[in-house]
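About this split. The held-out portion is used to measure sequence recovery: a designer receives only the structure tokens and must propose an amino acid at every position. Recovery is the fraction of positions where the proposal matches the reference. Here is one held-out target exactly as it appears in the evaluation file.
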């Protein structure tokens, strides 16, 4: 066993004695339900868990998940708490819980063993919020350098930034097809987003015009909404990659002297600005594609001043005994 995970009793052999069909393998069934990017991430988590439990001799597909019991999951929680950041640890615990759930559904575990094995809580975090919201002047600067670029790449990049300002993840941006954009409403249909969920969100004012300017160059043939643009200004008809979005943003940030930011910071900006306009958190969570409004609240970057101003609107009917001028 991994030296970080030890038990008082002789450990149970956790390796599968013979391969399971994919339709009966709890890890395979769980992973098949995920979008490709999430599938890669969660497979890595399950491989790491398997390695910890068997001192590197098993991966997600060779571990017998049905043999995991409370002592295994409790030990994993302890290791995760010491070894990983809370977000990473909770992602791995989520993968573990879901695989055990599939083992129960496939009748590989009985109810008592399952209930005790999943009897663990997430790891709480007291860390400060990650990332930042971009200011209006920063967004204007990014768009200005795009508009000053006379090539098709400048128009494409302005459209990309405008779409990111609608709160999309970069994987969702590159997966958009032209049919997912409604020029009448500015609506964007995100298909098979995180958690394999579909949703509709809307472009902010001005963003729809940026997308339509790009479409005037791209054309109206079916396919990805955003195409690559090569150095000669040619437009290959293929889909962009996640990494291409990162490269574009880094390039435009350097040209506009905007401080470092991540693609996800556009999502934080979108959520923060919507909340600042008074939109309720349920509506914002639906636009962002969050299953839990509590997740949306974590993206609120408005800080202490908003809380101070909110309380300043309240009144306590108390009259001081002496005039304040004294």
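Reference sequence for scoring:
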């Amino acid at each position: 066993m991994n030296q970080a995970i030890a038990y008082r009793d002789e450990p149970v052999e956790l390796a599968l004695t013979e391969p399971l069909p994919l339709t009966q393998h709890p890890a395979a069934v769980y992973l098949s339900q995920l979008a490709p990017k999430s599938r890669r991430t969660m497979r890595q988590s399950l491989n790491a868990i398997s390695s910890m439990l068997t001192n590197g001799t098993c991966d997600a597909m060779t571990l017998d998940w049905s043999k995991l019991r409370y002592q295994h999951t409790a030990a994993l929680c302890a290791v995760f708490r010491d070894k990983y950041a809370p977000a990473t640890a909770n992602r791995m615990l989520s993968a573990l819980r879901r695989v055990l759930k599939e083992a129960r559904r496939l009748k590989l575990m009985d109810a008592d063993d399952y209930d005790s094995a999943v009897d663990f809580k997430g790891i709480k975090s007291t860390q400060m919020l990650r990332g930042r919201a971009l200011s209006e002047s920063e967004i204007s600067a990014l768009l200005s350098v795009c508009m000053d670029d006379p090539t098709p790449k400048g128009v494409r990049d302005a459209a990309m930034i405008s779409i990111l300002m609608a709160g999309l993840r970069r994987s969702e941006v590159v997966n958009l097809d032209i049919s997912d954009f409604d020029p009448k409403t500015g609506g964007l249909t995100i298909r098979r987003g995180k958690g394999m969920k579909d949703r509709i969100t809307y472009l902010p004012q001005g963003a729809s015009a940026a997308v339509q300017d790009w479409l005037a160059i791209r054309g109206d043939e079916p396919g990805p909404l955003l195409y690559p643009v090569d150095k000669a200004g040619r437009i290959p008809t293929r889909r962009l990659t996640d990494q291409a979005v990162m490269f574009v943003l880094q390039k435009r940030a350097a040209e506009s002297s905007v401080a470092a930011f991540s693609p996800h910071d556009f999502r934080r900006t979108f959520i923060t600005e919507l909340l600042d306009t008074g939109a309720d958190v349920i509506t914002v969570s639906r636009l962002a594609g969050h299953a839990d409004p509590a997740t949306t609240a974590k993206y609120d970057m408005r800080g202490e001043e908003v809380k101070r101003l909110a309380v300043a609107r309240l009144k306590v009917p108390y009259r001081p005994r002496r005039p304040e001028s004294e």
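Annotator remark: The beta strands are 181-182, 187-190, 199-202.
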